[in-house]
Every structure is written in C-alpha cells, then in structure tokens.
TrEMBL record:
Keywords: Lipoprotein, Membrane, Transmembrane, Transmembrane helix. This is Host cell surface-exposed lipoprotein. Coiled coil: none annotated. Residues 33-82 are annotated as: Disordered. Residues 82-128, 131-178 form the Putative host cell surface-exposed lipoprotein Ltp-like HTH region domain. Residues 55-82 have a biased composition (Basic and acidic residues).
C-alpha cells in the first residue's frame, strides 16, 4: 500500500501561521525605551563642584569613544530598513525554533513566509547571531521527543531537501552530541 506520509508539525499551515503571528506580536510589542527613562533632578551644588574635574576628564574620554564609534554607527545607519527587518525576523525565528541556514533563508524569502528580497535575506543570514550546529542539535532533540528514530533516519531528516536542510556536518554534530 502507498501510505500518505505525514508532514512534520513545523511544515503544517497552522504552525507556520502561529509562528508568523508570534513574530508579528514580538516585533509589534517593542516599546520606546527613551520614554521609560527618568530624568534625574538637580543635585546639591556642592557635590557638583567637587566632581567638576573628574567629569571633565570623563567627558573627554566619552567624546573620544564617540568619535571612534561614529563609523560603526554610520555603517549601521546605511543598512536599508528592509534588511534590518529581515535580520530582526531571522533572529526571532532562530530564537523560537531550530533553523538551518538554508531553511531560514527559504523562510525569509518564501511567498508563504516573510517575502523578503533575497538580498535582504542574505544580509540577515550573514548577520544573525546563531550557531547552526546547536540549531541542528536542538532540531534533533525535538524530533526524538516526538518519535524515536535511528541515527540514520535522524540524519536523513536533518539533511533532507524536504526536512530541515542542515549540512551533513551539522547533522553529524547533532547526532554526535545527543544525550546518551
């Protein structure tokens, strides 16, 4: 008989929709941090007078730091908004569930996913803070929680074109580092 294979839970429409809703909720909940800061009142003038010399040297050091940090900030400012959003989305995805580099790229560019341009998705892939070996290990643990698998079957699932799309090295790392 020809049995219909079940899709993994993370490839079902309801799960993808749930992930998208969670990502939108996380992105939409960012508050204005500046509004939460309190402005300090005037202190005693005697304390201010005593600290003038140390404040001047601190101010000079701060200005030097700002000058060296300006090129970094301007480089970040030059990044298009859509690239920054793709990076935020990528970071949210890897924080929520295990993704391979290829799987993350496809999620970001898919017509059923985020629909970012390939250039924005590539920027996100290059700048997201993630260890794909650890992502593969997390995915392997998730599979084993759902159903028992042989190492060979797990390797196939992790590297499959229709599975997680991890590299062979990442899948092997996951298998080698599973709890005994």
């Amino acid at each position: 008989m020809n049995e219909k294979q079940k899709k993994p839970f993370y490839k079902r429409w309801w799960f993808i929709l749930l992930v998208i809703i969670v990502v939108i909720a996380v992105l939409g909940s960012g508050g204005d941090e500046d509004a939460q800061k309190e402005v300090a009142g005037d202190g005693e003038s005697s304390q201010i007078e005593n600290n003038v010399a140390s404040k001047d040297s601190e101010q000079e050091e701060k200005e030097k730091k700002e000058e060296t940090e300006k090129p970094k900030e301007s480089a970040k400012d030059d990044v298009p908004r859509e690239y920054k959003n793709a990076l935020k989305a990528a970071q949210n995805y890897v924080d929520i569930m295990a993704f391979s580099e290829r799987g993350l790229f496809e999620q970001l560019t898919s017509e059923y996913g985020d629909q970012y341009p390939e250039e924005a998705a590539q920027y996100a892939i290059e700048n997201v803070e993630v260890d794909y070996n650890e992502e593969a290990l997390e995915a392997a643990k998730n599979y084993l929680e759902i159903m028992p698998m042989s190492d060979k079957e797990l390797f196939e699932q992790l590297t499959s074109e229709h599975g997680d799309k991890f590299t062979e090295e990442q899948a092997q790392y996951a298998i080698d580092n599973l709890p005994k």
